[in-house]
Amino acid sequence: MNVVTRFAPSPTGYLHIGGARTALFNWLFARHHGGQYRLRIEDTDKQRSTQAAVDAIHAGLGWLGLDHDGPVVSQSAQAARHAEIANELLAKGAAYRCYLNADELEAIRKQAWADGSPVRSPWRDRNDQPDLPFVVRMKMPDNGSTTITDLVQGDVTVQNQVLDDMVILRSDGSPTYMLAVVVDDHDMGVTHIIRGDDHLNNAFRQLMVYRGMGWTAPEFAHIPLIHGADGAKLSKRHGALGVEAYRDMGILADAMVNYLLRLGWSHGDAEVISRQQAVDWFSLEGVGRSPARFDPEKLSDLNAHYLREMDASELADLVLASAASTSPLAATRVNALLPLLKERAKSHLEIAASIGFLLHDGAPDIDDDAAELLDDDAKMRLLKLVADAPTDEWSIDSFQGFLKDWLTANNLKMKDVGLPLRAAVTGSRQSPSIVDVVVALGRDETLCRVEETCKNQ
Fold this sequence. Notes:
By secondary structure, this protein is mainly α. It is built from 20 helices and twelve strands.
């Protein structure tokens, strides 16, 4: 099957979650079939389209790794081609010039709404051409029905009499979206249109343009929209909607792709799905007909999985890039503790926020909870501990052995030294195992921190 899909966002804002999932499904379908995935920017609304939004779309798709084939198509640049097709439709009798003024059109609309009938202009059956402004309308069929065999929704039928004679060319000669999208899809060779089911009604109107031109229409696949956890249509009140916002919150691209994939698509019981598996397995048969629910907690849990599976050096670079380190030894310390730090973290930003004690040399800032652990008796024990500590560089085994023997010799328990030691070297009550921490910091840095903390705290 020679497959060409497309993602066609309007550049009026960020790349939102629903758009990102649509792009992903198009990308996967094309990659699965060895076809092409094209990108078109639908920028005909010049008042609302911005370059910043175009840049945000490219940045979001780039972060997700959804590379497109061929040049990006700008819909506004094809306006002359759209007008050319409108004139061809006129010549074929599939469209007509409508000279209704605003008041006349409003009266016809009101009557149509009252009767439950479609908007029909009296000019559709006239041949005279007065010297007046006009729009070009499609001549929709008056009777019968149209059925689309949608690859997700199944057979969907509408009665033709509900289809208004839609405008395809405005009085200023500019094309409408309903014409432009059909011409662009035809010229780009699109074989499958995969988009949200809020466009399903448009498909019947757009199909008439294909038929009017004698073109083969592509296959349609309208996927259900994404809802919030409360079951309502996803909106700003549900939180961040732009994919870059989730990137800035510490979500990994692979986790986001995996999560978006599972929003409305399934492959057996698989939850964690690699990119290659997604390409191998993806089919439109796996897309459900019910709206998917966006659950930030589930996304966070999935991100934690990808964090744990991430290459250690790549994760360390990501963490360090998000933290302000001043010690030349920061990277060494972070790498040493990373296996422990990532076990309970949900994001690399969470790790970055917890490792201040690894990034700088010298005594840390002590938070109030930790300071309560450093009374005079605790400081005396810590100073004795560091005075008795081995002079050789420490390893996990050597320091554990020394600490066990030292506690026994001084009739102490781990709680008598462990918590104050953690407070003295990290400034907090929370950290990985204190043995792992002091070994990662090294003997000299640990001794320095304990001595400075006991002296100044």
